[in-house]
């Protein structure tokens, strides 16, 4: 009982407020009523106001009324109707200035990512209850920062590193307050194989003045980086941006398209963390979101021309032994 009182004091805080000084409003959409109730309970306890939401099908029927400051959607499984609902919501949110958070599963990630191309949402992969609450606070904090000043690239990278610390706090919150929930799936639990070998200079996104290295060399570097986790805690070497740059460099030379799920796996960090990095790297021009011309329901991630040039110059300036130590 004493510990419960201590915990309450330790994590007491003021609720988030909107511009009018009222608690921030969150609209919740989920097909499972129990999930909607659980999310509402957690967010209400954190000081947010939960407004009327509903099932995903409600997003397709009739006009979308005032959504709130944040829209939280839970869709672990998605079909054609669900993708249409997300696309409509994506357009509505991008015009209203609200913030969108979508929780999904790794299996549905590619479809969800393809449906959301306008509102710059925060995507969570199999989040815990604490991670959902933290995500709402994070997007509201991002809005506040952008209202004060335009974020520079350095600011965005600093925010990403701060977000990693917040993720660690969320895990601690899970252990303290939500011990009944199962831990979110980690990307390191999955294996990923790559197919094919291409030429050292590829087509489609511009030609680098320096040739890219043979993709087999890049794959060897990736394998050596992954081998470290067999001997040390993998969190000691967490560097998702560089791991994703290496993966996209090899895939570009192999003429392979990279899905967002594949890139998340290559990042070797929790899926939600990887998606946050991808979002920021797309916004800063390091990565590009590329629509599939044959299927508008799909989208891929690729290196920008500037990043291709940078990776080509990097490998041109380091010899193979040094590159293997990258």
TrEMBL record:
Q: Name one GO molecular function term.
A: DNA binding
Which parts of the sequence belong to the HTH marR-type domain?
A: 256-305
Keywords, alphabetical: DNA-binding
Name of protein: Winged helix DNA-binding protein
Species source reads Erythrobacter crassostreae
According to the entry, what is the taxonomic lineage of the organism?
Answer: Bacteria, Pseudomonadati, Pseudomonadota, Alphaproteobacteria, Sphingomonadales
